[in-house]
Amino acid sequence: MITSGIHHVGLAVTRLEASAAFFTNLLGWDEARRDPSYPAIFVSDGHIMLTLWQVADPSNATAFDRHHNVGLHHLAIKIDSEDRLKEIHQILTKAEGVAIEFAPEALREGPAHHMICTEPSGLRIEFIWPGQ
Questions:
Q1: Is the dihedral of CA 121, 65, 131, 103 positive or negative?
Q2: Domain range enclosing 13
Q3: Nearest one of 82, 74, 84, 64 to 117, comparing CA atoms
């Protein structure tokens, strides 16, 4: 192979601070650094780094439509247990600016379970427990 994995994923957001807080305050990720000149905030869970880039004009940004646009359909984050998946659901249910698309449920016939939400800038985030 020529490549060796994902270094980071860059995501354009409309609410930079709120999107960063989704990962750091709600999920316990670390803020790795900031670049106020762009502006951008880099967050990591120790396995993946996300670069959250503030769009130039949030009030005129075009929301992504997964049915009609080419681009990131959703970001799937692996969870280490079904209990942890349920815990994340409870945390996100109470969080401001987060919309739950669906609660934890079996993925097809299982054993994997997953849920999807949108974070404060409208990015779709899936949390998935592979079931093993």
A1: positive
A2: 8-56+72-129
A3: 74
Can you give the length of the chain in residues? 132
List the CATH number of the domain containing 51. Answer: 3.10.180.10
Total domains in the chain come to: 1
In a domain, 28, yes or no: yes
Q: Any long-range contacts for 80-83 (C-beta under 8 Å, 24+ apart)?
A: 80/129, 81/129, 82/113, 82/129, 82/131
What is the full per-residue pLDDT of the chain (132 aa) written as tens digits?
A: 999 999 999 999 999 999 999 999 999 999 999 999 999 999 999 999 999 999 999 999 988 888 988 888 999 999 999 999 999 999 999 999 999 999 999 999 999 999 999 999 999 999 999 997
pLDDT tens-digit map of 66-79: 898 888 899 999 99
Regarding pTM above 0.85, the answer is yes
Is 110 inside any structural domain? Answer: yes
